[in-house]
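Supplementary notes (optional reading)

For those who missed the lab, this is the record we used. Protein: Peptide deformylase. Length: 192 residues.
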Amino acid sequence: MILPIVAYGNPVLRKVAVDIDADYPDLKQLIANMWETMYASNGVGIAAPQVNKSIRLFVVDSKQIIDNLEEDEKNDYPGDEGVKEVFINARIVETNGDEWPYNEGCLSIPKVREDVYRAETVTLRYQDEHFKEHTKTFLGVTARVIMHEYDHIDGILFIDHLKPLKKRMIKSKLEDISKGKIRVDYKMSFPK
């Protein structure tokens, strides 16, 4: 089932999400719905707060980015093959490498894209959908997508990484989003 994506301005996007265990109600269905919602809205990742659940859960499919790169573009992300994975109760162990810019967007903040600087790699400790423990290091665009989604479960949005001038320049767009004055081709839930 495609779920409505929570729009900028909803308080759930600013909460630090809570850990869950294998007894979380209807978790398997929620994960399936998150995948369906993400693909229906042309996303590469989605976090539970974006579907109005303040829990430490997100899904990422960066394979679709890597698979759609031109051959010469693949040199920009050496060693990054992409992942399609579920991340539960994730914690960042460390980030490494130089920060580099990439034009990011967010399903909860439609029609706003800005360059965000993030580290080259991220090491994450997390559980998969079977609650098996993992500690892995991700790099390139995959690391970026993971850090973006991870921010969501900590109540942080990509716009929080922007310089004050950039934030002022997009202020009216953000106000329009929070008031529901925007059209998108996927289901959205706007703040009341």
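If you only remember one thing from this example: The first helix runs from residue 27 to 40.
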